[in-house]
Design a protein that fits this description.
Helix content is about 45%, strand content about 15%.
Length: about 90
């Protein structure tokens, strides 16, 4: 999956970086506490690093775990993620 993120980031170099963003994963199916949260932040770090290695000007859309819920986003620690151009998102269905 990480290699696929890198591939897409590389392909997006053909577009104006002010007009395109890459969402790294939609609605991840991990819990937003304890070991699942640590695992998710590690997965995000790997995806961010690979995307930025292939396209350092790309804007990335990042969500928390727990199917992109607000709880997942609030559990996310941005200081644990690589420095990148990030838009944070969550889904609200209630």
């Amino acid at each position: 999956y990480v290699a696929g993120v890198g591939y897409l980031a590389r392909k997006l170099r053909a577009f104006n970086p002010n007009r395109v963003a890459l969402e790294l994963m939609n609605e991840p199916r991990l819990g937003c506490k304890d070991a699942d949260q640590i695992k998710w932040e590690g997965m995000l770090s790997a995806m961010i690093n690979e995307a930025m290695r292939n396209n350092p000007y790309l804007t990335l859309v990042v969500t928390g775990s727990c199917t992109s819920s607000i709880e997942g986003l609030l559990a996310l620690d941005p200081k644990r993620l690589p420095n990148a151009n990030i838009i944070y998102t969550f889904h609200f269905y209630e």
